Protein backbone atom coordinates (compact mmCIF):
# COMPACT_ATOMS: atom_id res chain seq x y z
CA UNK A 1 0.00 0.00 0.00
CA UNK A 2 1.17 3.52 -0.81
CA UNK A 3 0.02 6.27 1.53
CA UNK A 4 -0.55 9.76 0.15
CA UNK A 5 1.81 12.08 2.02
CA UNK A 6 -0.80 14.81 2.44
CA UNK A 7 -2.96 12.37 4.44
CA UNK A 8 -0.24 11.57 6.98
CA UNK A 9 -0.25 13.41 10.28
CA UNK A 10 3.13 15.11 10.94
CA UNK A 11 3.80 12.80 13.90
CA UNK A 12 3.08 9.70 11.81
CA UNK A 13 5.24 10.93 8.93
CA UNK A 14 8.20 11.30 11.31
CA UNK A 15 7.60 7.97 13.09
CA UNK A 16 10.49 5.50 13.20
CA UNK A 17 10.64 1.71 13.10
CA UNK A 18 11.77 0.50 16.53
CA UNK A 19 13.41 -2.57 15.05
CA UNK A 20 15.63 -0.71 12.58
CA UNK A 21 15.71 2.87 13.79
CA UNK A 22 14.79 4.02 10.28
CA UNK A 23 11.77 6.05 9.33
CA UNK A 24 8.59 3.99 9.25
CA UNK A 25 7.86 5.49 5.84
CA UNK A 26 11.40 5.49 4.49
CA UNK A 27 10.47 4.96 0.85
CA UNK A 28 8.80 7.29 -1.60
CA UNK A 29 6.89 6.30 -4.73
CA UNK A 30 8.35 7.83 -7.92
CA UNK A 31 5.25 6.81 -9.90
CA UNK A 32 7.06 4.59 -12.38
CA UNK A 33 4.80 1.54 -12.43
CA UNK A 34 4.60 -1.54 -14.61
CA UNK A 35 1.19 -3.25 -14.74
CA UNK A 36 -0.27 -6.04 -16.80
CA UNK A 37 -3.15 -4.93 -19.05
CA UNK A 38 -5.41 -7.60 -17.56
CA UNK A 39 -4.82 -6.24 -14.06
CA UNK A 40 -5.67 -2.66 -15.05
CA UNK A 41 -8.81 -3.73 -16.90
CA UNK A 42 -9.94 -5.63 -13.81
CA UNK A 43 -9.58 -2.48 -11.66
CA UNK A 44 -12.04 -0.32 -13.62
CA UNK A 45 -14.99 -0.85 -11.28
CA UNK A 46 -12.78 -0.66 -8.20
CA UNK A 47 -11.43 2.74 -9.20
CA UNK A 48 -14.88 4.07 -10.05
CA UNK A 49 -16.40 3.01 -6.71
CA UNK A 50 -13.53 3.68 -4.29
CA UNK A 51 -13.39 6.65 -1.92
CA UNK A 52 -11.45 9.61 -3.26
CA UNK A 53 -8.51 11.32 -1.59
CA UNK A 54 -9.28 14.79 -0.25
CA UNK A 55 -6.50 17.33 -0.71
CA UNK A 56 -6.70 20.87 0.62
CA UNK A 57 -4.60 23.06 -1.64
CA UNK A 58 -4.20 26.57 -2.94
CA UNK A 59 -5.75 26.70 -6.40
CA UNK A 60 -4.87 29.29 -9.03
CA UNK A 61 -7.85 31.10 -10.58
CA UNK A 62 -8.26 34.13 -12.84
CA UNK A 63 -8.78 36.16 -9.67
CA UNK A 64 -5.68 34.83 -7.93
CA UNK A 65 -4.90 31.95 -5.60
CA UNK A 66 -7.74 30.66 -3.42
CA UNK A 67 -8.06 27.91 -0.81
CA UNK A 68 -9.71 24.87 -2.33
CA UNK A 69 -10.40 21.16 -2.02
CA UNK A 70 -9.37 18.66 -4.68
CA UNK A 71 -10.78 15.15 -4.94
CA UNK A 72 -8.07 12.83 -6.27
CA UNK A 73 -7.60 9.20 -7.26
CA UNK A 74 -4.20 7.58 -7.76
CA UNK A 75 -3.11 4.60 -9.83
CA UNK A 76 -1.27 3.19 -6.81
CA UNK A 77 -4.62 2.84 -5.02
CA UNK A 78 -4.90 -0.44 -6.91
CA UNK A 79 -1.83 -2.05 -5.31
CA UNK A 80 -3.73 -3.77 -2.47
CA UNK A 81 -5.87 -5.47 -5.13
CA UNK A 82 -2.85 -7.14 -6.74
CA UNK A 83 -1.86 -10.73 -6.01
CA UNK A 84 1.81 -9.79 -6.37
CA UNK A 85 3.61 -6.45 -5.96
CA UNK A 86 7.37 -6.19 -6.38
CA UNK A 87 9.49 -3.21 -5.37
CA UNK A 88 12.62 -1.98 -7.10
CA UNK A 89 14.63 0.28 -4.80
CA UNK A 90 16.82 2.99 -6.33
CA UNK A 91 18.99 5.81 -5.01
CA UNK A 92 17.14 9.11 -5.19
CA UNK A 93 19.90 11.24 -6.72
CA UNK A 94 20.55 8.63 -9.42
CA UNK A 95 16.99 8.01 -10.60
CA UNK A 96 14.79 10.89 -9.46
CA UNK A 97 14.90 14.36 -10.99
CA UNK A 98 11.37 15.78 -10.98
CA UNK A 99 10.33 18.84 -12.97
CA UNK A 100 7.23 20.38 -11.42
CA UNK A 101 7.94 24.10 -11.11
CA UNK A 102 9.36 26.97 -13.15
CA UNK A 103 13.10 27.77 -13.06
CA UNK A 104 14.20 29.62 -9.95
CA UNK A 105 11.05 28.90 -7.96
CA UNK A 106 12.19 25.79 -6.05
CA UNK A 107 15.36 24.13 -4.81
CA UNK A 108 14.62 20.57 -5.95
CA UNK A 109 12.04 20.23 -8.73
CA UNK A 110 12.74 22.65 -11.59
CA UNK A 111 14.36 22.22 -15.03
CA UNK A 112 17.57 23.69 -13.58
CA UNK A 113 17.78 21.26 -10.65
CA UNK A 114 16.97 18.27 -12.91
CA UNK A 115 19.66 19.30 -15.40
CA UNK A 116 22.20 19.67 -12.57
CA UNK A 117 21.49 16.12 -11.36
CA UNK A 118 21.78 14.66 -14.88
CA UNK A 119 25.08 16.45 -15.59
CA UNK A 120 26.52 15.33 -12.23
CA UNK A 121 25.51 11.72 -12.85
CA UNK A 122 27.01 11.70 -16.33
CA UNK A 123 30.19 13.30 -15.01
CA UNK A 124 30.60 10.40 -12.59
CA UNK A 125 30.21 7.95 -15.48
CA UNK A 126 32.98 9.71 -17.41
CA UNK A 127 35.32 9.89 -14.40
CA UNK A 128 34.69 6.22 -13.59
CA UNK A 129 35.91 5.43 -17.13
CA UNK A 130 39.12 7.43 -16.71
CA UNK A 131 37.96 10.71 -18.21
CA UNK A 132 38.61 14.18 -16.76
CA UNK A 133 36.19 17.10 -16.56
CA UNK A 134 37.61 20.62 -16.53
CA UNK A 135 35.84 23.04 -14.21
CA UNK A 136 33.92 25.94 -15.68
CA UNK A 137 36.04 29.06 -14.89
CA UNK A 138 32.86 31.02 -14.20
CA UNK A 139 31.36 28.24 -12.09
CA UNK A 140 28.10 28.31 -14.05
CA UNK A 141 28.11 24.75 -15.44
CA UNK A 142 29.04 21.55 -13.62
CA UNK A 143 29.33 18.14 -15.26
CA UNK A 144 28.77 16.90 -18.79
CA UNK A 145 26.00 15.27 -20.81
CA UNK A 146 26.39 11.79 -22.30
CA UNK A 147 24.28 11.14 -25.39
CA UNK A 148 21.68 8.40 -24.77
CA UNK A 149 22.64 7.02 -28.18
CA UNK A 150 25.95 5.76 -26.77
CA UNK A 151 25.04 4.96 -23.15
CA UNK A 152 21.95 4.89 -20.96
CA UNK A 153 23.42 3.78 -17.65
CA UNK A 154 27.15 4.48 -17.94
CA UNK A 155 27.93 1.34 -19.95
CA UNK A 156 30.35 1.16 -22.93
CA UNK A 157 31.98 4.55 -22.30
CA UNK A 158 35.59 3.46 -21.88
CA UNK A 159 36.52 4.02 -25.53
CA UNK A 160 34.87 7.42 -25.52
CA UNK A 161 36.27 8.72 -22.24
CA UNK A 162 39.41 6.92 -21.04
CA UNK A 163 42.37 9.31 -20.93
CA UNK A 164 40.34 12.15 -22.46
CA UNK A 165 39.56 15.61 -21.09
CA UNK A 166 36.25 17.42 -21.52
CA UNK A 167 35.08 20.93 -20.70
CA UNK A 168 32.23 21.33 -18.23
CA UNK A 169 28.94 21.42 -20.10
CA UNK A 170 30.24 19.34 -23.02
CA UNK A 171 28.13 16.71 -24.75
CA UNK A 172 29.72 13.30 -25.30
CA UNK A 173 30.49 12.30 -27.99
CA UNK A 174 31.53 15.81 -28.98
CA UNK A 175 30.57 16.95 -32.47
CA UNK A 176 33.32 16.28 -34.96
CA UNK A 177 34.81 13.50 -32.85
CA UNK A 178 34.29 11.02 -35.66
CA UNK A 179 32.73 8.50 -33.29
CA UNK A 180 29.53 6.83 -34.43
CA UNK A 181 26.58 6.78 -32.10
CA UNK A 182 24.95 3.42 -31.46
CA UNK A 183 21.35 2.90 -32.47
CA UNK A 184 19.00 3.21 -29.51
CA UNK A 185 17.23 0.00 -30.50
CA UNK A 186 20.21 -2.01 -29.27
CA UNK A 187 19.77 -1.10 -25.63
CA UNK A 188 18.32 -3.50 -23.05
CA UNK A 189 14.90 -2.69 -21.62
CA UNK A 190 15.79 -2.24 -17.94
CA UNK A 191 18.33 0.60 -18.35
CA UNK A 192 15.83 2.36 -20.62
CA UNK A 193 13.16 2.17 -17.92
CA UNK A 194 15.54 3.48 -15.30
CA UNK A 195 16.56 6.35 -17.56
CA UNK A 196 12.93 7.33 -17.92
CA UNK A 197 12.43 7.06 -14.18
CA UNK A 198 15.02 9.78 -13.73
CA UNK A 199 12.67 12.28 -15.30
CA UNK A 200 9.69 11.36 -13.23
CA UNK A 201 8.91 11.40 -6.73
CA UNK A 202 10.69 10.02 -3.83
CA UNK A 203 11.38 11.09 -0.28
CA UNK A 204 14.53 9.09 0.35
CA UNK A 205 14.45 6.09 -1.96
CA UNK A 206 12.01 5.37 -4.74
CA UNK A 207 10.63 1.88 -5.45
CA UNK A 208 9.55 0.90 -8.92
CA UNK A 209 6.26 -0.99 -8.60
CA UNK A 210 5.14 -4.03 -10.56
CA UNK A 211 1.62 -5.30 -9.99
CA UNK A 212 -0.38 -7.99 -11.67
Summarize the structure.
This protein is α/β, with parallel strands linked by helices.
Strand order of the largest sheet: 1-9-4
- The gyration radius over C-alpha positions equals 21 Å
Contiguous helical run count: 7
Helical content (DSSP H or I, runs of 4+): 10-25%
Notes on the structure:
The protein has 212 residues and is of the alpha/beta class. It has seven helices and nine strands. It has helices at residues 10-13, 37-42, 44-49, 92-95, 111-128, 158-161, 189-197, and strands spanning 33-35, 53-61, 64-72, 85-91, 132-134, 145-146, 165-167, 171-172, 205-211. It has a three-stranded mixed beta sheet with strand order 1-9-4. It has a two-stranded antiparallel ribbon with strand order 2-3. A two-stranded parallel ribbon has the order 5-7. The radius of gyration is 21 Å and the shape is extended.
Topology:
Elements: H1 10-13, E1 33-35, H2 37-42, H3 44-49, E2 53-61, E3 64-72, E4 85-91, H4 92-95, H5 111-128, E5 132-134, E6 145-146, H6 158-161, E7 165-167, E8 171-172, H7 189-197, E9 205-211
Parallel strand pairs: 1-9, 5-7, 6-8
Antiparallel strand pairs: 2-3, 4-9
